[in-house]
Amino acid sequence: MTALILDDRFARELPEMAVRWRAQEAPDPRLLVLNEQLAGGLGLDADWLRTPDGVRLLVGNSVPSGATPVAQAYSGHQFGGFAPRLGDGRALLLGELVDADGRIRDLHLKGSGHTPFARAGDGLAAVGPMLREYIVSEAMHALGIPTTRSLAVVATGRSVQRETMLDGAVLARVASSHLRVGSFQYAAATGDRDLLHRLADHAIARHHPQAAEADNRYLALFEAVASAQARLIARWMLVGFIHGVMNTDNMTISGETIDYGPCAFMDVYDPETVFSSIDMWGRYAYGNQPSMAAWNLARFAEALLPLLDDDLDQAVTMAEAALGAFGREYAAALSAGMQEKIGLSGADETVVAPLLEDLLTLLQQNHIDFTSFFRDLGRAARGDTEPARGLFADLAGFDAWLNRWRALDPDGEAMDRVNPIYIPRNHLVEEALTAAAAGDLSPVERLLTAVTGPFEERPGLQRYAEPAPEDFGRYRTFCGT
Question: CA 440 to CA 456: how far, in whole Å?
């Protein structure tokens, strides 16, 4: 293949936030899954990546000449508590490359071994959590939701101690960058205003170049990040995605979804749904995600205050006004998306808003599967109401709503273009990961086939569209560290 060139722009421009490091040697690396489509878009030869040299690249043991792998420094509020020094404890930025569309992309490893930021952790990852991130991130991409993407999962041949001994793995992932709110918190906490300036200018050039033309470029940066996050969180809510660990170190400056740890898709509609085993108080429950995003953005604004204005009071006033726009933009994005989901895009807001409010109440009271319902509702728009009606115990209540909705002439075909039939349902993800742990990757491959084409119903994939069986029980996810 053509020689791979990995730039080290982050390390050169922000050396205070980059620790040169090398991945831990993998004793017996074995490729489990490779994203050939993504590889091609990055200008990488998929056949070469399957060779021993390619696999060694994917675990960080063979690095192109001139590349500078680094562990990135960042801080973060974790479940509300500030940790001034987090950083890549088990990850490495191998470098930046340019994809086929001319965009800069990070090539990043997760589970590549202990770094100076690892604290008491071992820096490793297990096969299951890395395959989970691969499955869910690629499903999110197929849903049109901004996200980091997964290039490959490689088993390392090393065991990892968790509750039991597990097979170790490294995930190779790709992002427009790995800059986070926590990156700015780290720079601000150093008290080095020049570092904060350089980080902000780096973020503007990388993600929000239009901010450079504004009268106050750093205020414009904050506004751009808040806008991107408003649209992102709305997209999460529209498909029932629950991130599970929305700490400030897991909120990107680019507006991409990052770090798929204890994530899951909601089954039955309930705003209080929590899957993460470590979220004891429901801080990051499905319905709390918009307010938690606003909270994270407030911490971002605090980090940026020295750049917004020399007068602190004026800087705070500017930040508060800009943060207020987040709620308005989120509400507008969610409203527009929900109108699309029920086939009434562009309809009279005064009519649709109460219709949507009543619908969500019905879904919650009747314990309705969120994803299945909207696909069945699309059938109702085309005249077949029985699949949707059959979901409800309160049939009279739903029929009354259905009549109001059908009187507005919803577009069923348009609904099918935005309402997925296939998502990474929790019972199917667990089934696939259990099989993979036993050496059978075929369930992972079949699940990927379904969720990477989420809107088109296909023969032979019926079980991937069905809700969890009643005996699946209460679902819990884990971060994998």
Answer: 27
Which position among 8, 106, 167, 249 bears the catalytic label?
249
**pTM for the full model?**
0.96
* CA dihedral sign of residues 381, 387, 391, 395: positive
The token duo for 371 is 């994803």
Summarize pLDDT for 113-156 with one digit per residue, the tens. Answer: 999 998 878 899 999 999 999 999 999 999 999 999 999 999 99
247-257 as b/e: b if 16+ CB within 10 A = bbbbbbbbbbb
- Establish if 17 belongs to a structural domain: yes
SS3 assignment, position 50: coil
Helix axes 217-239, 312-341, angle to 10 degrees: 30
- Asked whether residue 230 falls in the same domain as residue 247, the answer is yes
What residues make up the domain containing 52? Answer: 9-175
> Rg of the Cα trace of the chain?
23
- Of 351, 353, 322, nearest to 336 by C-alpha is 353
Q: Is the same domain home to 75 and 42? A: yes
Domain presence at residue 192: yes
- Cα–Cα distance, 248 to 74 (Å, whole number): 10
* Whether residue 329 sits in one domain with residue 185: yes
CB 160 within 8 A of CB 168: yes
The yes-or-no answer on residue 122 being catalytic is no
